[in-house]
Write a structure and sequence with these properties.
The protein is 38% helix and 16% strand. By secondary structure, it is an alpha/beta fold. It binds zinc ion.
């Protein structure tokens, strides 16, 4: 037994870690998510399926290359608990781990082989200061680990904080988010195939606004990957 393992086990004796998917105590070798939850992730396999649900949602709104989501966002599911941990409980690691798994799956599709750069949907600096991090950036860190592509978190920013949009209709939401993003360094992005990453896609309004802002840069191509999509 290594010193590191010894101290890890010793630490766990007094401060056990719990699975962010099901809440059971993690055993040695498990990290953040238990093996059973990993095996039961509600995978979509959309990356292997053109004209999938996410692409249908965004069709005619974003001229994407490919668009996909890693899992179905079912209520009460492992992935819902995990994303709740990522967004509201300060659990960055779960984003990195799920991002890494999503990145591995994207490698199975030739459509994502020519990605040049990974970009998270930015959150407003005020929100980021409050949460301590951008949850989509944590997902990107995992995707980067698997895909070995550069991550850019500075060229594309959010300039307007939109917080209470949940009750508005799709159209007014879109009007609301239209100008909330800005490309501050187009030279870093021109001629690139960008993989835009978000946590959950529901109506697609945020992705639509973000992608169409990025597409103003010369000769940019966009693909989209979200950790989960609402199953409707
Ligand atoms: Zn679990």
């Amino acid at each position: 037994m290594s010193i590191k393992t010894f101290f890890k086990d010793f630490f766990h004796l007094f401060y056990p870690s719990y699975c962010c998917g099901c809440g059971t105590t993690l055993v040695n070798g498990e990290n953040i998510i238990c093996l059973q939850c990993l095996q039961n992730l509600p995978l979509t396999r959309f990356h292997l399926q053109k004209n999938n649900m996410v692409e249908k949602t965004l069709m005619g709104r974003i001229p994407y290359q490919r668009a996909t989501a890693f899992c179905y966002f079912q209520k009460g599911s492992i992935i819902q608990h995990a994303i709740h941990q990522l967004k509201y409980k300060g659990n960055r690691e779960v984003g990195v781990i799920l991002g890494e798994l999503m990145g591995q799956s994207l490698m199975d599709s030739p459509d994502f082989a020519d990605i040049d750069i990974i970009i998270p949907i930015p959150i407003h600096p005020k929100k980021q200061a409050k949460r301590g991090y951008n949850q989509s950036e944590m997902i990107c860190l995992g995707v980067q680990k698997s895909m070995h592509k550069p991550l850019d978190t500075t060229s594309f920013v959010r300039v307007i904080n939109t917080s209470s949009q949940t009750k508005k209709t799709r159209y007014s939401r879109w009007k609301n988010v239209e100008d909330i993003f800005q490309v501050v360094n187009p030279d870093n992005l021109k001629n690139k195939h960008i993989l835009l990453i978000d946590d959950v896609i529901t109506t697609g309004s945020t992705l639509e606004a973000a992608a169409n802002c990025l597409l103003k840069v010369d000769n940019v191509k966009i693909s989209i990957a979200c950790l989960a999509c609402a199953n409707h």
